[in-house]
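PROTEIN DATA CARD
Card holder: Indole-3-acetic acid-amido synthetase GH3.1
Chain length: 592
Origin: Salvia divinorum
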Amino acid sequence: MAVDSILSSPLGPPACEKDAKALQFIEEMTRNADSVQENVLAQILGRNADTEYLKSFNLDGATDRHTFKSKIPMVTYEDFHPFIQRIADGDRSPILSSHPVSEFLTSSGTSAGERKLMPTIKEELERRQLLYSLLMPVMNLYVSGLDKGKGLYFLFIKSETKTPGGLLARPVLTSYYKSDHFKTRPHDPYNVYTSPNEAILCPDSFQSMYTQTLCGLYNRHQVLRIGAVFASGLLRAIRFLQLNWHQLSHDIRAGSLNPKVTDPSIRHCMTRILRPDPELADFILSECSKDNWERIITRIWPNTKYLDVIVTGAMAQYIPTLDYYSGGLPKACTMYASSECYFGLNLNPMCKPSEVSYTIMPNMAYFEFLPHDNNNSNSAAARLVDLVDVEVGREYELVITTYAGLSRYRVGDILRVTGFHNAAPQFQFVRRKNVLLSIDSDKTDEAELQAAVDRASRLLNTSVVEYTSYADTATIPGHYVVYWELMVREASQAPEAGVLERCCLEMEESLNSVYRQCRVADGSIGPLEIRVVRNGTFEELMDYAISRGASINQYKVPRCVSFTPIMELLDSRVVSTHFSPSLPHWGPHSRR
Ligand code: AMP
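Structure generated from the sequence above:
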């Protein structure tokens, strides 16, 4: 095997034979990106030729790119929705895919306030597994000795539902953790987790988090890397430690398990791990009782080499807080994936967050790219370019055709090409289209915020003249802040505090189900806050924008702000602040 032709690396050759194979696979896929893509498309079109969807475009058995591009339209979720609804309702005919739909993956992207349902087929699990299997071989090129310790990963499952037709609907990671691929994975010295499967698979988030934290503490010297899927998840774990260190150290001292952890499989598996360790308990007490939690991660887990969390995209807002708690440990963003399809991986995972680029793996699906400009003409599909034809420096929207039956589907992610690895382009994640506010996996767009303000303002006997918002992540959990300027001439006419509190809750009730799930089930978003600003504030905001060069004719109130001077201006004009007094409605089975 030509080891020297494998990824250039500061550390030289692969860590082991298994890694060499994985790296060789990456090389082959990226060198032959175009022919791999051609084959993927031919396979997808060949096997799905008799589906109702593809048949309606009269491909007549063709599986080539030219016919595909000339006959199949580019679509959004809304276009696919009627087909997806039929599958969800129990229609088992080959509608989108010739392989039976095995379950629905519930995306954090929403449509009409509810999670989007992505059909998937059994073999997709293998494709996802394949991408996972490439991550450690790449990481081992940059960080040595990861087989000498463990990873403290905070991993969780979420609630699942059944569609009217009886198919499971759940998040992609819940599906993966519950699969045999994960549960019965063979021992791999480079991938040993401190969390037992029983804790990861416990549906109760408190019991799961408590057990995972406890195991992490027992393994404090073995832990070499700490992770969660997204940065927000890791910060939640820190917050959990802040709230529970007393009980955790008590358990460690006594070798006991908090009685609130009632799950029998956890209690059973923990008998192997629990032991009285008064020295460790003293250490936890002394570190956690200090007022200053700066560098708490490296204080408790001194051998941590890096944090394994996604801090690109909306998660970039958490970088300063992660740096504070970790003393600036490297933050490895290893992969780029979605419920629709897993896309690719970062071949240089120890780089700075601002330099992260993901290499799309050409075997995962058929990828096309819509140049991202303001040209939204009907002929947009004609402008789609293939994976190998994207240009460095340009921005594109990702469009995918998957084995599970999504055809020329707009994912909604905007990516910028930063370079190539062999023939495969590498992309910086720029942003998701139409997302205004995001704290955790929630994605709130401008229309949703507008609808929420409209609904809440019906509780007032006056109106909201102007509003804007921002995602406040200074505290954990973060929360939405909405600035309101009200139509009141005198302070005495201002609505009572109780009314404005109800407005906060009413806005939350109006927001999408992912927001409400984060609030209610996960506790990963705090109560929404309304800050009432005094009359004329938004005019001042406009004056400020114009002084910085905005055109008066084109000025629009930004519906979300993050620029410090603007926030300072707004905050200096606040006359009252109000928080949501209780939780909005959410239930795994609620479809409103
Ligand atoms: P979901 O369908 O809920 O799994 O969300 C998938 C979306 O999360 C993607 O389409 C992206 O918008 C976002 N995402 C996933 N991975 C990354 C990443 N590495 N960096 C930034 N955003 C990401």
